[in-house]
Specification:
Number of helices of chain A: 0
Oligomer: heterodimer
Largest sheet of chain B: 6 strands, mixed
Largest interface: A-B, 22 and 25 residues
Strand content of chain A: over 45%
Number of helices of chain B: 0
Structural class of chain B: mainly beta
Helix content of chain B: under 10%
Chain lengths: 115, 111
């Protein structure tokens, strides 16, 4: 199993540009989570999906952020327009749905820098 | 709000010593999990302890849970330089599936 795959690993963009982060969860995992990590705020949960349906997006900071999961093997997190304060490492994680005792499996993250 | 808060924020020890990290949380939990993060990588699950358990072992790891004090500790025995990483506790809030992380303890094991 290749684990959770995120792309790109690094993204540098200018303020105002659209950014799209991608995630492929582990096959068979039907829960998918997007987190953002910064030194100041630590790991913040942005949104999570069960069976491709967004369950809780209360952590999405603003309307500039949107996330989709068109099928069980792919999810995107989009920021439009991007701002310097969006600079962070964005992680995707997956686990088996409905099993609260099952661990999260994380990808290696996308480091976003907005200049 | 932060559910889990780790203490200390940073810890530096010599190889072979034991490392203890603590976690406090605010609301009732179903389970508490510990994760490790190496620099530049994603988090990796280490161990899970259920709310009805008091202690759990896995290799050189020992986790305790005190639900009356809303706290947990992670002990790494006979530490190695390769244990250098950040360690996070995480809890599930209420009846949801949201796993909320603390800010972590940065452990440095000096060879």
């Amino acid at each position: 199993d290749a684990g959770v795959i995120q792309s790109p690993r690094h993204e540098v963009t200018e303020m105002g540009q659209e950014v799209t982060l991608r995630c492929k969860p582990i096959s068979g995992h039907n829960s998918l989570f997007w987190y953002r990590q910064t030194m100041m705020r630590g790991l913040e949960l942005l949104i999570y999906f069960n069976n491709n349906v967004p369950i809780d997006d209360s952590g999405m900071p603003e309307d500039r952020f949107s996330a989709k999961m068109p099928n069980a093997s792919f999810s995107t997190l989009k920021i439009q327009p991007s701002e310097p304060r969006d600079s962070a490492v964005y992680f995707c994680a997956s686990r088996e749905t409905g099993l609260r005792n099952s661990p999260l499996h994380f990808g290696n993250g996308t480091r976003l820098t907005v200049t | 709000s932060q559910q889990g808060e780790e203490d200390p924020q940073a810890l530096s020890i010599q190889e072979g010593e034991n490392a203890t990290m603590n976690c406090s949380y605010k609301t009732s939990i179903n389970n508490l999990q510990w994760y490790r993060q190496n620099s530049g990588r994603g988090l990796v699950h280490l161990i899970l302890i259920r709310s009805n358990e008091r202690e759990k072992h896995s290799g050189r790891l020992r986790v305790t849970l005190d639900t009356s004090k809303k706290s947990s500790s992670l002990l790494i025995t006979a530490s190695r330089a390769a244990d250098t990483a950040s360690y996070f506790c995480a809890t599930v809030q209420g009846g949801s599936e949201k796993l909320v992380f603390g800010k972590g303890t940065k452990l440095t094991v000096n060879p």
